[in-house]
Amino acid sequence: MCTHRPSCPAAESTAAESPEARVVVAHVVAAHPEQGWNLLCDGTVVFDDSGELLPDGRVVAPRRAPAGRLVMAA
Hints:
Blueprint lengths: L18 H7 L2 E5 L4 E4 L4 E3 L4 E2 L5 E2 L14
Antiparallel strand pairs: 1-2, 2-3, 3-4, 4-5
């Protein structure tokens, strides 16, 4: 699916397993911030809550910070 060079690893590869690595390497090809998701060039759909839907249908659960680490506005 990638047309850029160097092309990014496939979403299923171990090099792409790190969400941080995928965001750095894979490019956004369709952005829908009003709906809360972006389509990456490797076929992954990334949601604003940090969850992902991989091209093969597997789901990556959102990575949320523990409640104790959240800062609340006064």
